[in-house]
């Protein structure tokens, strides 16, 4: 199986590129953001708990996210692989994901790091908020999310480099150009 961690700051294009990867390679896609938004929309207990963290620009507790991911991962039958979008976000989560996959005789094939300058991220996220109406895409919350990203999530780059799974992707340019760079990495696996 081809298990990909697609990585980058909020607004780096993870969802856009994931959709293209699903189409080209026949992979399943787990977006923790989409899973959590569905729980919130459905008013589940998980959704209510998650909403409190998200509204404050904070991350969801690790144990909760791993349980959710394991359940979704196990629901895919005859899968060619999975794209993990928005997870892991901390080294503890990366360790937990590695363990969860190992229990299933699987591993992360590659971590794709979509690198985008912060000023471009702000422009993209504010535009996305205006177009989609997502409440968490406002300037104050974006700044909190980017700070959390830099403090808690960016250290994963070194973790995946040490694990031999890291691949840098320039996240600015045309969507087709960025996708071609991603495919070049995947096709070598």
Write up this protein.
There is one protein chain. Helix content is 58%, strand content 14%. It has 189 residues and is of the alpha/beta class. It has a single domain, classed as P-loop containing nucleotide triphosphate hydrolases (Rossmann fold). It has a five-stranded parallel beta sheet, sandwiched between helices. The longest helix is centred in the middle third of the chain and has 15 residues.
What's the short story on this structure?
With 189 residues, the protein is an alpha/beta fold. It is 58% helix and 14% strand.
Secondary structure blueprint with pairings:
Blueprint: E1 2-7, H1 14-25, E2 28-31, H2 32-41, H3 45-55, H4 62-75, E3 81-85, H5 91-102, E4 110-115, H6 118-132, H7 139-153, H8 156-162, E5 166-170, H9 175-187
Parallel strand pairs: 1-3, 1-4, 2-3, 4-5
Helix pairs in contact: 1-9, 2-3, 4-5, 6-7
CA(first)-CA(last) distance? 11 Å
Report the sheet-strand fraction: 5-15%
Largest sheet: 5 strands, parallel
Low-confidence segments? none
* Largest sheet: spatial strand order: 2-3-1-4-5
Class in CATH? Alpha Beta
- The overall pLDDT average reads 91
> Quick one: how many beta strands?
5
Shape: globular
Structural class: alpha/beta
Radius of gyration computed on alpha carbons:
16 Å
Give the CATH topology.
Rossmann fold
Run of helices and strands: EHEHHHEHEHHHEH
What count of domains describes the coordinates?
1
Oligomeric state, counting identical vs distinct chains: single chain
> CATH architecture, please?
3-Layer(aba) Sandwich
Helix content: 55-70%
